[in-house]
Amino acid sequence: MAKKSNEIIKAESRGLYGTVVEELANSERYFSDDAEKILKFHGMYQQEDRDARKRDRTADHHQFMIRSKMPGGQLTAAQYLTHDAIADEFGSGTLRLTTREAIQLHGVLKDDIRDTLRRLNHALVTTLGACGDIVRNVLACPAPTADPQRQAVQQFAFELTRALYPRTNAYHQIWLDGEELIDDHVVDEPLYGPTYLPRKFKIAIAYAGDNCVDVYTNDVGLVAIFDDQQRLRGFNLLAGGGMGMTHNNDATYARLADEIGFITPLQVVETVKGIVTIHRDFGDRVDRKHARLKYILADRGVEWFRQELESRVGFQFEQTQLMPEFSVDDHLGWHEQGDGQWFLGIPIENGRIVDRGNYRLRSGLRAVVEEFDLPVRVTAQQNILLAAVAESARADVESLLAEYQITQVQDISPVRRRGIACVALPTCSLAITEAERVLPGVIDEFEDTLADLQIADADITVRMTGCPNGCARPYVAEIALVGRSLDKYTVFLGGSPVGTRLAKPFLDLVPIREIVPTLRPVLAFYRDYRHQGEAFGDFCTRVGFDVLSNLIAIEGEKALGSD
Ligand code: SRM
Ligand code: SF4
């Protein structure tokens, strides 16, 4: 039987019911391809443990990844502890912080999905819309702040989430209520319509000057602008960013968002809704590789987009406001919140919260969150912020973390601090090769080489993905390692350290063991010829790839000569 297209599956799903209920009741450990597509909207992916499958091809290795939707990365202590408890009870015993400030549980079996979702929802965490062709988790700068103006900015993550939430009751009926299902239910989705969006849709909110959410890589970006008295004036509106591309397909590409104009706080919800409807109405519903909002901007132009949006919202946008230069604050270490309390940003390598030997990260975080009842925030760099620490509790928090041997920001190098890897193997079905499991070793090599070159303090952003989909936002990194084939990567260079310029492909099919040795002459050249304070990505862009390629060729010839 011919495979149904996503559009037909969505249309026939009657508001995201599909065949989930029937298939949930059968004795299989997995869902059909069609149901799997609907399940994404409910916040889960059907996966296999690819390591286990390799070891034993006869057994069934189906399992589910469940992703929570946490606007602005915010959780209460109780909500964090619920995720932690579920990880043991139904998951793989780890928590995975994501690049979109969310938490993923891996390894949940079909029979445990309902209990997992009930537990999460009981703690007031939803997974509806965490995946699927719909508005995903809304990012906002996660730094806990007591300043009401800044809190107001973060509140937009919740306001937009509420305004763009799907209306279907399929999620609640199937997973939570357990009521008898009515066959002819009518689902009205005034915003999305019966086929939802052509593709996923991502929103991020940043403060002018701090691009910790990689605002230009989102379908919609909002950059908060304050006046001289630190009152919120409004937002610069960006649209059409996205990272995903496919190797050897030039029609797909990473793209930074365009500046559309300036909007007031009262115009935010209507404007973003308007953009969602443009995506709904003009997005490509035939070719999913060409279906993101960015291709509408690229194909029809910014001017067309602005006019279409203005006609939908009924007002004209002001000119984009001048913004200070961006930097990126990862919010790690201790910071005052502004209300006498403190927050502590703890680095989590590639977002994986797990106990490994003496490094008992998961147990230690559980202990400290529980004992001090600390709200949690997840950052877009896959790290965690522990909020609302009383001045008097700081030393106790420190010593508890030390008891579990939890690494703090002062214990790691700048290159490790900046590194991000996507999940990739063993759970991601799209992974061509490794990322999360190998980046720590690659960073070890970078650390050794940088130390050897006497630039151990070089603050270089390295991001790695197991395929070109771009889940670690590699194409805005200074060095991007993008999975190309087994253990081989395309090396991109030249992204700006603050996420405002794309990196370009520099070397292809580099075996993992050769990445750092190959880049060594480029790093040495950077040490010798950089301008005062010049970032590595800026340096690579200034000197150009011809010069950098020559350096590598010369080193290669020298190595041959010495044989
Ligand atoms: Fe992603 C698909 C993991 C952020 C672009 N992403 C996937 C899937 C679900 C694989 C699949 O479709 O079967 C991965 C699940 C792996 C696993 O086992 O957990 C996956 N993406 C992730 C996470 C967990 C990476 C991480 O290590 O943190 C991030 C979850 C974010 C969240 O909480 O919602 C994640 N993905 C991103 C980002 C970064 C961002 O949004 O800021 C991007 C690039 C930005 C963008 O969307 O353009 C991204 N993921 C993709 C794409 C390519 C989309 C495209 O336009 O081409 C896919 C594949 C697809 O959609 O077909 C994908
Ligand atoms: Fe999987 Fe590719 Fe995303 Fe990595 S970048 S998580 S390999 S889809």
Residue fraction in strands: 15-25%
Mean pLDDT: 96
Head-to-tail CA distance between termini = 59 Å
- Overall shape: it is globular
As residue ranges, the low-confidence spans are none
CATH architecture of the domain at 415-562: 2-Layer Sandwich
> Class of the domain at 415-562 in CATH?
Alpha Beta
Biggest sheet character: 5 strands, antiparallel
For this structure, what is the CATH homologous superfamily of the domain at 415-562? Sulfite Reductase Hemoprotein, domain 1
Computed structural class: alpha+beta
Q: Going across the major beta sheet, what is the strand order?
A: 1-2-5-4-13
Query: How much helix, percentage-wise, in residues?
Result: 25-40%
Number of helices: 18
Which radius of gyration do the C-alpha atoms yield?
23 Å
Strands, count: 22
Bound molecules: siroheme, iron/sulfur cluster
CATH topology of the domain at 415-562: Sulfite Reductase Hemoprotein, domain 1
